[in-house]
Amino acid sequence: MTKEESMDVTDLPGVGAATADKLAAAGYSDLLSIAVSSISQLADAAGVSESVARKMIQASRDGLNMGFQTGADLLKKRDTIVKLKTGCSNFDTMLEGGFETGAITECFGQYGSGKTQIGHLLAVMCQKDDPDAVAVYIDTENTFRPERIVQFAKGAGLDPEQVLGNVKVARAFNSDHQMLLSEKVADLVKEGMKVKLVVIDSLTAHFRAEFVGRGTLAERQQKLNKHMHTLAMLADKFNLCVYVTNQVMAKPDQFFGDPTEAIGGHIVGHNSTFRIYLRKGKKNTRVAKLVDSPNLPDTECIFNITEAGIEDA
Prior knowledge:
Elements: H1 3-6, H2 17-25, H3 31-35, H4 39-46, H5 50-64, H6 71-78, E1 83-84, H7 89-94, E2 99-100, E3 103-109, H8 115-125, E4 133-139, H9 146-155, H10 160-165, E5 167-171, H11 175-190, E6 194-201, H12 205-210, H13 217-238, E7 241-246, E8 248-250, E9 260-262, H14 265-271, E10 274-280, E11 286-292, E12 300-305, E13 310-312
Parallel strand pairs: 3-7, 3-10, 4-5, 4-6, 6-7
Antiparallel strand pairs: 1-2, 8-9, 10-11, 11-12, 12-13
Helix pairs in contact: 4-5, 8-9, 11-13, 13-14
């Protein structure tokens, strides 16, 4: 047994049973969450002094051996990544196999461009090769439709009832509720659920509605940044795929090219591993353009949304 596997929160200096309960209630249930916390946040959560909190963080980091890894180690870790296929060869080819686990993929575009349809489809397709896989769907705009899951499941040759049973849906009523639900995903994994996908549809709707005007911009972006960091940690720690949809706004001062821009600015852009721009094409087709990726070229594909799924146009 390694040092990391044998250490527990109660093994940290200054942490007894009561303090461990306080930490767990505040979301610090493992060494990693403590290791990446700030001293002041941890001190408030545990009800301890900052010097004790500092020792707890340092001990957590030592226990996790948080340092540099070789490129070979990281390449080996990449072998554990799973690609969630859409069933559309053009789309899957553009992403070199499908939507990656261990990453955040953002799809942004105008209404009717297919963002929500892809979210529903991924919730089904993640169960194609693993019947025990669970999809968590955080619905912020009341767009989740179980009937669509049934159609996609039939199209994929899966049992609709079983697929629906493995889709865990929660309606988020404001940005705080949305952030809380994303933090609860870790609890589902610890309860034994094989969570392979987290869908947030849409990421920015509540933030956009609650923070109005330039005076609230800094607070909104700070909160959104924290939310994205939680999602990134879920993706990395549990090797699951995070799929978020995003709204767009028009830039009236742009006279050439496409005037649409994703909401959330650089915070969402920098925190998303892959960014896909969706728009309507000719004759009821949709166009998906990969606009940002750490390892793939900027390409686009054309597809159709059908009752059974998405297919090459």
